[in-house]
Amino acid sequence: MGYLNELYNKKEKNFFFEKFFYHSNLLFLMNYYDDEDNGFVWSLSEQGEILLMDFACDDFRIGHLCYDKIIESIQSGKMADSLPMYTRPQKLGVLAIEMLASEKNQTIDWESAGIPIDPFYQRFCQEALYNENHDVVAQWLITLCDKHVEWSALFGINSDEQRSTGYEIDMEILLAWPFEYQAVKNFRAKQGLSTPIIDHPLLKTPMAIEHRPDMVGWKQNRPAIYDQMIDDLITINPELQVINKLF
Q1: Backbone angles phi, psi at 102, to 5 degrees
Q2: Burial class (CB in 10 A: 0-12, 13-18, 19+), 12
Q3: Residue 154 — pLDDT band, cuts 50, 70, 90?
Q4: Which of 51 and 85 is assigned the larger pLDDT?
């Protein structure tokens, strides 16, 4: 909320976004580097939010680093176990993981994994992600943004309409941010593909900008307790040394 206030009211930079970005990715890493195997911290939809936010910031490192662990969790049934009993078709996690899998020419058998999915997000990756026809891609992107608005409009209205039941955009920072569009744009740029600019209300707010977290500035300005916290985490689990390499 601090970052939204900073952008909308043009206030001085306070590293609100950098702190949020760091916290989210740290928890994502811990989700997959917990050597005690205490179960999932993040559900599929929560992971999708974080991965797509990273992609929208042109940062694919966490996704690539954890990809094999993500696939193992899907194939082993752990991902399905992380879903609520009465879950609805999954969306954001499907989009993010299908994007990563496409780079390896791999496909995900969601049905065999016991994970119900919204077919739109899978079809988007199959039919639009690498498509070079801008007219076709633009129509897919408009629908992608329409769905963002649809899920965001339900935020907080009803306890039955939340991330766990299929209405997935849950983090406040993502509500007015066309992060799916920006994630796709950055992904296509990695593949040498351009992305059409679409005419959509979601791309006309102060959040519709190139978000680039200043992690160097964050590291220089963050409280010293963070360094002690990371040292303690690495002492408990040496695999988490990767944190210092990433951030």
Answers
A1: -65, -30
A2: exposed
A3: low
A4: 51
Task: Please give the Cα distance from 242 to 239 (Å, whole number).
Answer: 7
- Rounded to whole angstroms, how far apart are CA atoms 193 and 21? 27
Tell me what pLDDT residue 193 has: 97
Q: For residue 203, which of 229, 219, 184 has the smallest C-alpha distance?
A: 184
Tracing tokens 């496909």 back to the chain, one arrives at 107
Phi, psi of 64 (to 5 degrees): -70, -40
- Coil, helix or strand at residue 75: helix
225: enclosing H helix or E strand: helix 225-236
Q: Which of 149, 148, 153, 144 is nearest to 122 (CA)?
A: 144
User: Are residues 184 and 238 in contact, defined by beta-carbon separation less than 8 angstroms?
Assistant: no
User: Locate tokens 């990273």: which residue?
Assistant: 54
Residue 21 has pLDDT above 90, yes or no: yes
Using 50, 70 and 90 to split pLDDT, how confident is the model at 155? low
Supply the pTM of this predicted model.
0.90
